[in-house]
């Protein structure tokens, strides 16, 4: 990474951590250059990058100042709902369909924009598969999936602190099938499953289609699942499984710290429920390395770890997996009964791509980009949204969860935004109840001035609610 | 097709239809040439082809004689079982795993051998996708799937007599997911589903995993479902759905005639159940054209039509579909909840391949090959298996259902065959009970003399049971 970028990132972190307060003047270019032992032009470049990211503003002849960022939202109130079957309204399906309309500025789409796919490296990998293994790509590769791919996946999981053998891995059609199969393995219709609230709506769809009863657990937008509430729920109701995303939650971007993860696992053991760990955003942690997955601490296969490459590589490849441990054989049977196998070409494409060694380079790039995009989005939200608006500042992924002042209706904002060719996902989609004044904003698109202008427009729409 | 092939095929059909009896002398080369208005050398070539297919044998200075073919098995006895949940034994999973062992002569594998994939045309199509639509292949193509592919599929369905619009088609991960989603749409756990007996074991796995109760309907290896028994079952039990393969059944190769199809649909209307039509072997009808699907007669969306390209193109592509009509919206929701979408590359590959116009040429070739392979297999079975062995002579696909004389155990034969590097699938796998003396034999592999020798070896193993 260029030196000025490293310095800009360090400063951005210090700003986020509060070392420099909103409105505060930053060190002069000369002082920064001296302190960091770099040239003045490097210091200037670092400030200019922060300016482009809208974290700092230059004032004539006075230096650079911290722009007030959006504040973090308050922890979600405890929904305190009894377990119940879901009856998602037609609104959810409509939102699903609308956010994919290609003419919109896609703040509603939690998928990386094409600019963030490693398209050239994937094309090379596709060429290699077509040239050297095409016949194999046409052959039936039954569950658990191609061995070479499973080996690559097991190696990736090492970086998440998980010692899995290729035998532990079952390849699926994306993370959605991984989670669906895990739920089918762990539960019967009518069973109670605990979910984060707010929770990714794909999981709510799966829970509804499997006729499971859902209990919502309040989830702090910063620190994740409210473990006290989860414990009370588990003492009161026969919870069979808990779906959660300890690394980086969709929609809030919340992450659980080491201590909370240990407590979650201990609670699962004590109250005898399983955990379906969704780690689809795990590879997008903003740091140099990713924190260990919950699965890394799992000694008795209480965690079914689910992930895919849809957020970290490209969404159309549809290769996901479950690290299922001792549940492996039953999971293979369920996979065979559900869809038989994942596509041969996709399996070999991902194997080839992972073998090429390009993934880490790609991750370093998109982690940096997403962090930068989020910083810029938060700065714009701070400037352009109604006073009292709060937004999460996640340590991974590309999503921020925006809480409008109470009384403002995010579904109305979503509808008015659609009319102005902007998509967001209103909060009501992510739970049975509540979050009417919240929405999810995705920053997985190159942050051009047009994109920033769209966000400013969204802010003006919100101000007029 | 070469003229001698056309003549050989006509003669083969006459032999199968009983116009020439086993042991009977066929017309002399001179008479045949005269009757068909061809040269003597063409007539000789036709007889030599039939000889290679082991339908006729030459006797020195006496001409060509009909080799006794294997007889058709008697209709399966009515299983007469009450609806019950399935508890498939570990045997099924073991068979599943064993038949895929690549070192075996794969009579157990109901998948086309690589020689029967249109690999060159698919490679061209893959090249075109990689060159012209690679970025699109990496994009998320949500359910119901790529429009161009759905248009091609709707056009294919015209050939099966079905007037479907692209809007009616929902693309799935193979036929297995198509059938699973259809079952989930039509039933709740505990509901009763009627199945053919014997029935494809993938469907039994799906029914078991969905916790459905199954009632077996006797299925004639020639004419398909016993409609009288289906009617009695529907009058007695609350049947919600019936899975069947009216075009060509797996494992028996049975097909229902026009009259039986009309009666089946009328029965479904009268007793108010739905039909999940599995037409995965439908394109492999041995005639010049394929008969219409059951769906073609369906005026009130009582039939959910499921298929894929796994048997007709290549098994690793994993593109299936449901023609769901008015159930479309709910099916899209279930697909979204189950696995989100099918792989982008596979969808575009199949679209490109179907657009290329190669499919019909390919089908003409494999239909001819499978018919020839089945003829040769039946001749060998007639010569080499214990007296009293019967085998079906299907009008489509590549499967024959072999019934050994009563008392001979096909599971033992399966085990001994494995030891000799030959796979078959024993009949017990295809039902809750019965079929102990039956097995499924797949002829989707080039009929070399080594393959024929393996079948002869299998016959010797059967004789020693």
Describe the structure.
Two copies of one chain form a homodimer. Chain A is an alpha/beta fold and 465 residues long. The first copy, chain A, folds into three domains: 3-66, Arc Repressor Mutant, subunit A (Orthogonal Bundle); 87-114 and 361-463, Aspartate Aminotransferase, domain 1, CATH 3.90.1150; 120-359, 3-Layer(aba) Sandwich (Aspartate Aminotransferase, domain 2), CATH 3.40.640.10. Helices cover 42% and strands 14% of the residues of chain A. Chain A contains 16 helices and 15 strands. Chain A has helices at 3-16, 29-36, 40-52, 90-99, 119-132, 134-138, 147-159, 174-186, 201-209, 227-236, 258-271, 328-338, 344-355, 359-384, 410-419, 449-463; strands at 56-59, 63-66, 84-85, 169-173, 192-197, 213-220, 224-225, 239-244, 274-278, 303-308, 319-323, 390-391, 399-403, 425-426, 438-442. In chain A, strands 3, 4, 5, 6, 7, 8, 9, 10 and 11 form a nine-stranded mixed sheet that branches. In chain A, strands 12-13-15-14 form a four-stranded antiparallel sheet, covered by helices on one side. The two termini of chain A are 43 Å apart. The mean pLDDT of chain A is 92. Chains A and B meet through helix 5, helix 6, helix 8, helix 9 and helix 12 of A and helix 5, helix 6, helix 8, helix 9 and helix 12 of B.
